Amino acid sequence: SHRYRIAVIPGDGIGGEVVPEGLRCLRAAAETYGFELETVEFGFACADYWVRHGEMLPPDWREVLGGFDAIFFGAVGWPEVVPDHVSLWGSLLKFRREFDQYVNLRPVRLLRGVRSPLRDREPGDIDFLVVRENTEGEYSNIGGRIFEGTDRETVVQETVMTRTGVDRVLRYAFELAGSRPRKHLTWATKSNGISITMPYWDERAAAMAERYPDVVADKDHIDILAAKFVLRPEQYDVVVASNLFGDILSDLGPACAGTIGIAPSANINPDRTWPSLFEPVHGSAPDIAGRGIANPVGQIWSGAMMLDHLGEPAAAARIVAAIESVLDEQPEVVTPDLGGSGTTARLGTAIAAEI
Amino acid sequence: SHRYRIAVIPGDGIGGEVVPEGLRCLRAAAETYGFELETVEFGFACADYWVRHGEMLPPDWREVLGGFDAIFFGAVGWPEVVPDHVSLWGSLLKFRREFDQYVNLRPVRLLRGVRSPLRDREPGDIDFLVVRENTEGEYSNIGGRIFEGTDRETVVQETVMTRTGVDRVLRYAFELAGSRPRKHLTWATKSNGISITMPYWDERAAAMAERYPDVVADKDHIDILAAKFVLRPEQYDVVVASNLFGDILSDLGPACAGTIGIAPSANINPDRTWPSLFEPVHGSAPDIAGRGIANPVGQIWSGAMMLDHLGEPAAAARIVAAIESVLDEQPEVVTPDLGGSGTTARLGTAIAAEI
Ligand SMILES: CC(C)[C@H](C(=O)O)[C@@H](O)C(=O)O
Ligand SMILES: CC(C)[C@H](C(=O)O)[C@@H](O)C(=O)O
User: Fold this and answer.
1) Domain of A341: which CATH number?
2) A230 φ, ψ to 5°?
3) Which residues of chain A have pLDDT under 70?
4) Range(s) of the domain holding residue B143
5) Do A251 and A267 belong together in one domain?
6) pTM
7) Which helix (H) or strand (E) holds A162?
8) Residue range B244-268: average pLDDT?
9) Active site residues of B
């Protein structure tokens, strides 16, 4: 039977609470579908580690993690101890960039049992994928400050887009759209205001669209696109966006589909030169950490995306189906964010049992 | 009696359809409240002008417009003829920057008679202001392309923030928050990902917050803030954001409050060294232009903001009240976007009559 080696990084805050539930469900799926999971847990990429070492990761992190089949990640960020841009650039954003996880894939789906904040939306009405560029764009670290501390103080930061970087994520998104029944792709832009990088993004997207004549491609400016997620979410199928726009859309989309507490994400290296990383869209949630009430569904669903990536699509689909039936049929076990009185462990256990 | 000199620029597409309705309502208000409006209409800042002159504006536009008390603007953009970034940077964005209209103020309010796409939201539940920085930040035109046409092609664009630029818009927002009953300010950021400019924005906002101890100030990252506009819009009062984030939030907010078709905006030069500019949030809408069905409410409401700025707050409030009562009590005259069968002129006339 297949055996997969998984690096587990719980990180900060509720990461440590939801990851065990993710693992519980992964193990249940492994048992049902006859594959093996070897997991190794790592205590870096968190504020505790930073306090002890002054770094978020050990110097040999590439070698330590590079040989795993995938990384199962909780959340990182504990701003009371270490500023977010330090902890994030020192861990998660480093993985994304240095492991070349250039696709951040985030499904937006209104599940049975979940109430959308939008009027009159039923399960099935909202079902699309956000494909986010994950290594460049607005998330650069080039720039700086001049005339510090004076009235002339000026701060600059570069957005950087490369043909390689833009084309590969667009290609992924067009392939994905082509594989879906609706074959519809929307690219997010802001070429009317951001006058250099965004017209370039449009130019590459238009060129890519010519190569995929079977995909119906259109573009929306990010402002109107955000508005349309609220007004007409049913019209989207695959949405591809730059790093920053993808970040915004992949929180906004899940909010329209009920809650970001259950949204999963996959940081994928499609070339498989390095491991891909799977994490919930939500963060470490300092406000509810330590209380055992965090919603584990985002983590569990991320586990499903990991299995899909590893070549276990049936097990992946089973996990998602289990999530959906528990949310729909066992309202008493859901966590408070979804209106229930369940705990993290109780909800995780219920989903694992269903698998 | 007071006499105000207004430069009128209809621009492209539905701009030319909604501006006359805005003027109709402004004239009604002038009559009722006993002030005079002198309007001069200009045919530049549109695709037609560009076709004839190869520029969006005449060379002496500063002198031509600089002496007016305000600019009443429709919409600009006709991408079939001139690329958006050319038409926008050649007109609207130039006004904002060169007339130092550093505050873009956009009210988000769920009016009576308008249905929010959000469940269970009633008029009064959503009532906040987006204060958008309007001259710098992500909307720079510094940057360029290297290795053009090759696989190494790379495009960069700078975000630029200055202490002057950041502090003045923050100060405006804190003053505004301090003048409102809830005294609550939220600043939008993304300092966990955008690691140079956004931590700077946070730093200046935190420093400004110390000077306004009566204002309850907090921050949200743009991704979660967008999600919370959908999930908990009632919690916002004044939201201050950089140019790009403000752009996104001021389309998303109005969408949550029903439609961007009715949202107004004020591009304000608070120092009054140059005229301020008032325009609807919506654009030129090529898809419905020429059909006489565009919703004029954004334009009319922008007129109200203009009167407020000119020192006619009672007339301004009356226009907003007239909008609200027509939308609420005369569903037959509203335009198709709001579910009615009215025309632009019919809705504008009904509101003017109510004033
Ligand atoms: C047309 C575009 C350049 C403009 C902007 O992004 O500022 C518009 O969306 C707005 O909000 O006024
Ligand atoms: C924590 C933050 C840096 C991160 C991002 O912006 O990428 C998060 O919001 C996400 O979406 O994974």
Assistant:
1) 3.40.718.10
2) -80, -40
3) none
4) 127-256
5) no
6) 0.96
7) strand A154-162
8) 96
9) 139, 190, 223, 247, 251
